[in-house]
Design brief:
It is built from six helices and nine strands.
């Protein structure tokens, strides 16, 4: 796995130093170890953990904006934990409702010595700035959290007009046209395919922002 990780990250344009490589490999090891007891992920093969979790997360490393990042529906910490490893100057809040997954993330944060990650046990739709979420975020990222229209509705309280919402999705446009509808008040800034080394599945990253309010100047 060490050689495959270094090779895959390089293909994604992510430069890993020795410490980051070690942290990512330890994250994979701890995930596999905990998974035996806590069933954190359906992926149990080390090679699949590399492609489906580590490299898939690193594929969006260049898309982050600003310093405050929220990973909504983070599960066992993806993409948030790998991104926090390669972006130590950014602060990450990993949000989920499943306690055992957040316990794993807290364990991984201690084991990896990450000072830029905190967890939040909450349903994202209940969060408001100052009530659970202390502020809006520069980037809100989600990976297969909910269909796009629903996801934007859920993360709205975490966003202001500067926030970039990054949606990691599979096929785009999706087979179900309803899942591609951009709700009123939002616009699709950009989309691009993701080529994840070793991962045959179709992947895309969408960047969305709030639309300017035409009435704001009146």
């Amino acid at each position: 796995m060490p050689a495959a990780l270094a090779r895959g990250a390089a293909q994604l344009g992510v430069a890993l130093d020795e410490s980051q490589r070690s942290q990512l490999l330890k994250l994979a090891t701890e995930l596999l170890r905990w998974n035996k007891a806590y069933n954190l992920t359906a992926i149990t093969d080390p090679d699949a953990v590399l492609t489906h979790h580590l490299l898939d997360s690193l594929a969006v490393a260049a898309d982050l904006h600003g310093t405050a990042v929220a990973d909504v529906g983070t599960g066992a910490g993806f993409p948030g934990l790998p991104l926090a490893i390669v972006h130590p100057a950014r602060q990450f809040t990993l949000i989920d409702t499943v306690d055992k997954k957040l316990r794993f993330i807290d364990h991984a944060v201690r084991e990896l010595g990450l000072a830029n990650v905190k967890t939040l046990h909450a349903r994202v739709e209940t969060l408001q700035p100052g009530r659970g979420a202390t502020r809006t975020f520069d980037t809100v990222i989600s990976r297969a959290f909910a269909p796009l229209p629903r996801m934007l509705q859920l993360v709205d309280p975490l966003c202001d007009e500067r926030t970039r919402v990054l949606a990691m999705v599979g096929r785009w446009p999706p087979a179900d046209a309803a899942e591609a509808v951009i709700p009123d008040g939002w616009r699709l800034e950009s989309e691009r395919p993701l080529s994840v080394p070793g991962l045959a599945a179709e992947r895309h990253i969408l960047c969305l922002m709030r639309s300017p309010n035409p009435a704001a100047g009146h």
